[in-house]
Amino acid sequence: MIIRFSALCILLGLSVTTFANEPAPAPGADTAPVLAGEPEIETAPPLRAIQIYSQDLLGQLIVANKHLQQVKDDDCQLVADIEARAKKMEVPVYQFLYGDMLAWGVCYDRDAPLGIHYIERAASQGLPAALEQLGRYYHRGILVQKNFDRAIVYLREAASLGNLRAQLELVEIFAAGQGSPYDYADAYRWLSEAVIADKATHQRAAKLLAQLATHMPPEVVAELKQASIKG
Description:
Blueprint: H1 2-12, H2 16-21, H3 55-63, H4 67-73, H5 79-87, H6 92-104, H7 112-124, H8 128-140, H9 148-160, H10 164-175, H11 184-192, H12 199-213, H13 218-230
């Protein structure tokens, strides 16, 4: 056997002593040969498992206007869960998220009409963010045709539920002398009683309230201010 092995090595041009003296590879060592110039194969890092957002967390993301960015950051992994909660479970925050994703083409091909449909379904269940967004869209003509009357209806409802963006938008409209004067007092009261931590937003609110006050009877403004102090 040794003679045949030696003869084979001679025919192949190999040294018998190379095999005899070569140290055994360490246990677990990679013994696969690496050819010169052979490119290294890079493996993509595994996707991290993403947990579906709780309704509270999603509500916070929506208020902060970070919901679409969060879906992008999560590589659209939760699309099926989001869609199921919007369509089958009819959860308002998920209807809003799903509608916004469709409206702006995030993780889906853009379908603005269907997106607005789901945002309207969320609004019909009283979600303030959905009411505010529809009011703003109808007021400014974003994705839909301008409709001042519909804008006021949506914004007024959202503002009454404490949505700050709706309160600011509504007072801005009324401060320009638009809308029904019968609504001015409510809009003034809602915004004047809002808790606003951001300094710039607080200054904007104060300016808008001062402008709206010029369109209202002085005694009504004084009464609202007094009620706000007592409250």
